[in-house]
Amino acid sequence: MPFAVLSRMTIDIGLCPLIDNEFNRGKSCIKFYEYAATGGATLASDVEPYKSEVTYRAKNTTKDWVKKIEKLIVDKDFREKIRLQQ
Asked: pTM above 0.85?
């Protein structure tokens, strides 16, 4: 997505789910960078490429994703803290 479009967006929460496999481990963190450029707090799978870049990650289980997404939704202060860290 062009930066001109991204810079006009306001995103509170960005989600980057990935299954851990060889193909996905070769991907870049572009989706995380796009969310960061819009000021969003990102939750990503705890796999490469996100493991080394994103500070707030979820295990690839439904339970962990739901718990961590809910935390971002209901706790504005926590969401802001994550956003600033990223």
From this structure: yes
